[in-house]
Amino acid sequence: MQLNTYIDHTILKPTTLLSDIERVCNEARQYQFASACVPPPFVKQTKALLEGSTVKTCTVIGFPFGYSTITAKKAEVYQAIEDGADELDIVINLIALKNNDWVYLQKEIEALAPIIKEKNKVIKIIIESGVLTDEEIIKCCELYGASGIDYLKTSTGYAEKGASIHAVTLFKQHLPAQVGIKASGGIRDYKFAKELIEAGATRLGCSASVAIVEGGKGQGSY
User: In which compartments does the protein localize (predicted)?
Assistant: First the structure.
């Protein structure tokens, strides 16, 4: 299993240094990861550092809590695209979800998705599955699966629970076939990464990416 091609090599800590970004981009190029996922202020530098490679530049919107207003998220989206982002991982408004305001969530995705799709960028929606019930996860699959997104993503990595086989399996059962599944949060070894892919994940968000692929050497991971 060529695990490297599934991985968004990620660094999103609030104390990220430019030297961290340089390291992540060098590793992403070396291991041919799918993308390097970085904080919004580093999108321009990341795009430049990855120039000439197949690695995409990925960033986050409304991260990590998702309760920015729609107007604020739109501004973030425009800025990310202007700075050169190829892929945008957007945290939904979890406050709206937990207050059962699905109308707001519908308005949010309807406001953001067209901007991204018009520019032919990849849109991933983060629902923070670790703090949701199965019913809420299924409703998210129905809402976002019909909205034209490219991936539904399990987690930010900041909640008490990250990716799980159970969540990925639910996604697989309730999403349209054309929508990818990104598992992220707490993926630290080859075994768990492989299990997530076998359950249906088509992309992995990892900060321990190098350890994961190195741990799979001899098993066909890289």
Answer: Cytoplasm
Residue 218 scores a pLDDT above 60: no
pLDDT reported for residue 217: 75
Residues marked active site are found at 89, 153, 182
CA-CA distances (angstroms) from residue 219 to 3, 212, 213? 10, 12, 10
pLDDT tens per residue across span 74-88:
999 999 999 999 999
Instruction: Read off the pLDDT band of 2 (50, 70, 90).
Output: confident
Which residues on adjacent β-strands are paired with residue 91? 126
SS3 annotation, 26-40: HHHHHHCCCEEEECH
* Dist CA 25 CA 33 (whole Å): 10
Q: Which residues pair with 51 in a beta bridge?
A: none
Q: Residue 132 carries which DSSP code?
A: S
Residue with tokens 């050497």: 217
Complete domains list, the chain, with CATH = 3-215 (3.20.20.70)
| Virtual torsion, Cα 28, 31, 35, 38, nearest 10 deg | -30
Question: How far is Cα of residue 178 from the mean position of the Cα atoms in its chain?
Answer: 16
Q: For residue range 122-142, what is the model confidence (pLDDT) as tens digits?
A: 999 999 999 999 999 999 999
